[in-house]
Design a protein that fits this description.
Order of helices and strands: HEEEEEEEEEE
Distance between the termini: 66 Å
Region (Disordered): 26-58, 160-179
Number of strands: 10
Strand order of the largest sheet: 3-8-5-4
Strand content: over 45%
Radius of gyration: 29 Å
Number of helices: 1
Shape: elongated
Biased composition (Low complexity): 31-50
Structural class: mainly beta
Largest sheet: 4 strands, antiparallel
Helix content: 10-25%
Length: 179
C-alpha cells in the first residue's frame, strides 16, 4: 500500500510541475497573452512603425423577410432545389414532394448558424374541392432577404414519403457564396 501512495504522490508532483511550466508560459496568472496596440519609434533610422491589429466584426446574420410562391403542382415525385444569391439574400427555386398535387409550398423552419442560413420548405394542403389521387410535387420560388450576405445557404425539404406516416427532412441543395 505504501508503494501505491508513493506512486500517487510522485505522479501528482510531476503533473503539478509540468502544469506550472505551462501556466508560466501563459503569463503566470493562467490568462491568455494579449496583443496591445503599440507605436514604436527607432532613432537609428528615424522610422515609425505601428503594430495595430484590425478586426472587423459583422453583425449577426438575420432573416429580415421571406416569401414563397407556388408556381405549379403536378403528379410525380420530385425533390429538387437550386439557389441563386442576390445582393440582399437569395432566391430559391425547387420542387418538394407532396401526398397529392393539391398542396402549396410553405416555409417550415429557418436556422442561422454563424454565416450559414438553413431553410426548410414543406407543403400545406389547399382548399381544393377535388384532387387527383397520386403522389405529387409542388414547384415553388422563394425569396429570402437578410441583413447581410450569408456565407452559405442550405435548403431542406420536409415531406411524408408514400409508405410512411412520419415526415422526413432531407437536404436537397446547398451553396456557398463566391467571394
Amino acid at each position: 500500500m505504501r508503494r501505491r501512495a508513493l506512486l500517487r504522490a510522485t505522479t501528482a508532483t510531476t503533473a503539478l510541475g509540468s502544469l506550472a511550466g505551462c501556466l508560466d508560459s501563459l503569463g503566470g496568472d493562467g490568462t491568455e497573452p494579449t496583443t496591445n496596440d503599440t507605436d514604436t519609434t527607432t532613432n537609428d533610422t528615424d522610422t515609425t512603425t505601428s503594430d495595430t491589429e484590425r478586426t472587423t466584426t459583422q453583425p449577426e446574420l438575420t432573416v429580415e423577410s421571406k416569401a414563397i410562391e407556388t408556381t405549379s403542382t403536378a403528379c410525380g415525385a420530385k425533390n429538387t432545389g437550386s439557389i441563386e444569391f442576390t445582393d440582399s439574400g437569395a432566391t430559391v427555386t425547387g420542387a418538394v414532394q407532396a401526398s397529392t398535387p393539391c398542396h402549396d409550398a410553405q416555409f417550415v423552419a429557418e436556422r442561422v448558424l454563424g454565416g450559414v442560413l438553413e431553410v426548410t420548405i414543406g407543403t400545406t394542403p389547399t382548399d381544393a374541392d377535388s384532387c387527383q389521387s397520386c403522389i405529387g410535387h409542388v414547384e415553388y420560388t422563394a425569396t429570402i432577404q437578410t441583413n447581410r450576405d450569408p456565407h452559405s445557404l442550405v435548403v431542406a425539404h420536409e415531406y411524408t414519403p408514400e409508405d410512411s406516416d412520419e415526415p422526413v427532412t432531407e437536404v436537397v441543395t446547398d451553396k456557398t457564396r463566391d467571394d
